[in-house]
Specification:
Blueprint (H helix, E strand, L loop, with lengths): L2 H26 L3 E2 L2 H13 L2 E3 L7 E2 L2 E8 L9 E2 L7 E8 L3 H12 L4 E17 L3 E14 L3 E5 L5 E2 L1
Parallel strand pairs: 2-7
Antiparallel strand pairs: 1-3, 4-6, 4-8, 5-7, 7-8, 8-9, 9-10
Length: 167
């Protein structure tokens, strides 16, 4: 065999591998509900600290990979959190990065807050916008993926890329 044929064959093989990996990442990145074993693990972790849930973990939507989003001309953003359910055709920035699992975020939340005997009212995945306001109508900036945990008293945001607390 000549080198030319070997080189062509290797290129075709690598292209096929890229296509298969791309399809796997795309299928794996669709929004999905938490698996029952994850829900049980989170409930078990919280019960050990006497923390109850008034939200339905089975309905928490998550993704495996997310990108930052660019924001401009968004007057409706009043809160520092955009839930996945409100996601529009945003202008995505950067590469897709794997996000931290809910069980890891719950562990970080418990370590950071040292809460006991409280109730978690909401857990959501969404975006945290960092915006600059220009002449009261145009907002520009970007938003990073975050996990939001709401208790009766406070709201806690965690960077979904690295797990660090936001704000």
């Amino acid at each position: 065999m000549e080198w030319k044929w070997i080189k062509t064959l290797l290129i075709v093989i690598f292209l096929c591998i890229d296509v298969v990996l791309g399809i796997m990442v795309y299928r794996d990145n669709k929004e999905h509900m938490l698996k029952p074993e994850v829900v049980e693990a989170v409930k078990e972790i919280l019960e050990k600290r006497h923390i109850s849930l008034s939200c339905d973990l089975e309905k928490v939507t998550t993704k495996r990979y997310m990108r930052k989003i660019s924001i401009s001309n968004e007057k409706e953003i009043v809160e520092k959190f955009i839930p996945l359910s409100e996601e529009k055709e945003w202008n995505y920035k950067g590469r897709r990065r794997e996000i931290v699992s809910l069980t890891s975020v719950i562990s970080l939340f418990l370590r950071d807050t040292d809460l006991k005997d409280t109730t978690i009212t909401s857990i959501e995945l969404g975006y945290y916008p960092e915006m600059a306001q220009i002449n009261e109508s145009v907002l520009v900036g970007e938003a990073i993926p975050v996990w939001r945990i709401v208790t009766g008293e406070n709201t806690y945001l965690y960077n979904a890329y690295v797990g660090s607390r936001v704000e």
